[in-house]
Structures are given as structure tokens and as C-alpha cells.
Amino acid sequence: MEKIKILAIVGSLRKDSFNRQLAMAAKAIIGDRAVFKMLDYDDIPLMNQDIEFPAPEAVKRIREEVKSSDGIWFFTPEYNHFFPGVLKNLIDWLSRPVSDKEPQVLAGKPAAISGISPSMNGTALAQDHLVTLISFLNMSVMNSPRLTIPNAMQQLDSEGKLLPDAGNPYLEKQANAFLDFIEKQIDF
Ligand SMILES: Cc1cc2nc3c(=O)[nH]c(=O)nc-3n(C[C@H](O)[C@H](O)[C@H](O)COP(=O)(O)O)c2cc1C
Fold first, then answer.
1. Would you tell me how many other CB atoms lie within 10 Å of the CB of residue 113?
2. Of the residues 18, 74, 79, which should be mutated to test ligand 1's pocket, given the most ligand atoms within 8 Å of the CB?
3. Would you call 118 exposed, middle or buried from its count of C-beta atoms within 10 A (0-12, 13-18, 19+)?
4. CA of 77 to the centre of ligand 1 (A)
5. Residue 96: C-alpha distances to residues 89, 142, 164 (Å)
6. Could you tell me what percentage of the chain is helix, strand and coil, using 3-state DSSP and rounding each to the nearest 5?
7. In CATH terms, is domain 4-183 a member of 3.40.50.300?
8. For atom 27 of ligand 1, which residue has the closest CA?
9. Please, what is the angle between helix 124-136 and helix 85-94, to 10°?
């Protein structure tokens, strides 16, 4: 049986992003139960319909990565009670049909959402907005469990890195639930 392929999309381009560190922790928890890949997308241009067709090479690449994955796990920060613009831009590109014969690549894909922030709400508001968007795009959203981790600054080591157990055991619970959720939706 082929391994499940999870594509992690981090809504922050920041090198030391807490959300990126959370995604790395999820990868460690998943271990060899699935292939877990992070999407690099900092070369995606701003959406501009003047350059939509033919799609820029970077857009073609991310579409292929999404197409070949069995599930997408979003790790998003919260910016002004929303998810960051870089993530909206990425999803806007992915929301467009590939051509007049090929539809957009997100429809039907299982999706999980996690986030960490320094504030008390742990990205809950950003996540709600993200659910609205990806539901509109017909992704299959795992609404429960979602993971919101508040008070990021209280969960750092002396070098400012996220403690390895930040979010545990909830992260582990979500990882197990997402593997299960994907398995129930794909035919191997
Ligand atoms: C433009 C901007 C707006 C922000 N708004 C919020 C917010 O609404 N709620 C919140 O919890 N944190 C907010 N923050 C702080 C971020 O949560 C914090 O910088 C966090 O570390 C970003 O995630 P990252 O570490 O994954 O890059 C904001 C940061 C920026 C740059």
C-alpha cells in the first residue's frame, strides 16, 4: 500500500516562524506513517490576471504538489484577526482552473488546520476565515479536531525556539485524526 502524502502549507514566510516549527513537530509525530512535505511558495507572484495564462512556472509547480498530495495541513498565523495575505494569494492561485479542461486542484482534498500565536486566541479567528474560504473551494475540511495554540511566547526555550512539546498531546491527537480522515476518503 502506498503511503499517504500530506502537504503542509505554512501561512508564514518567516524563517523562524512558530507555525513552521509547529509543522516540523507534526512531521516528527507523523514519522514514517506518511510522507510529509512542506510546500515552498515564496516565489509565487501576486495574483494578476494579466499573467494567469499560461501559468507562471512557480504556480505550475505548486499545483502539481497539491495534485499529488492526499491531504493538505494548514499551519497558519493570525494577522489582524485574519490569515496572512501570502496564504490568501497562494490559495487564490490554486483556486483557479488549470485550463478550460482541468478544474482547480483543491476541490475534494482533505484539509486540516492548526495555528499558534502569541495571543490568547491561538489563531482561532484566522482559522474560521480560512475554513470559510477553503469550504467555498470545496475542500473536505476536518473541522474537529482543529488546533489553536495560544501564548506562544510562554512556550519558548532559551534560544527563542518553540519547545518540542508545545501543543502536545493535542498535536498528536490531530495528526492521528487527520491520517484517519484521509484514509477514509481516498482509494488506494
Ligand atoms: C501584520 C500583523 C498582524 C498581526 N495580528 C495578529 C493578530 O491579529 N492576532 C495575533 O494573535 N497575532 C497577531 N500578530 C502577531 C503574530 O501572531 C506573530 O508575529 C506570530 O509570530 C506570526 O506567526 P509566525 O511566527 O508563524 O510567523 C500579527 C503580526 C503581524 C505581522
1. 28
2. 79
3. middle
4. 6
5. 11, 23, 37
6. 40, 20, 45
7. no
8. 17
9. 10
What is the pLDDT, as a whole number, of residue 99? 84
Gap between the Cα atoms of 98 and 100, Å rounded: 7
Q: For residue 72, give the nearest of 44, 103, 41, 117 by alpha carbon.
A: 41
**What pLDDT score does 116 carry?**
97
C-alpha 13 – ligand 1 centre gap (Å): 12
Side chain identity at 125, as an amino acid letter? L
pTM, two decimal places: 0.97
Cβ proximity of 58 and 100 under 8 Å: no
Where along the chain do its domains lie? 4-183
Q: How many residues does the chain have?
A: 188
Per-residue pLDDT of the chain (188 residues; tens, 9 = 90+): 799 999 999 999 999 999 999 999 999 999 999 999 999 999 999 999 999 999 999 999 999 999 999 999 999 999 999 999 999 999 999 999 988 888 999 999 999 999 999 999 999 999 999 999 999 999 999 999 999 999 999 999 999 999 988 888 999 999 999 999 999 997 65
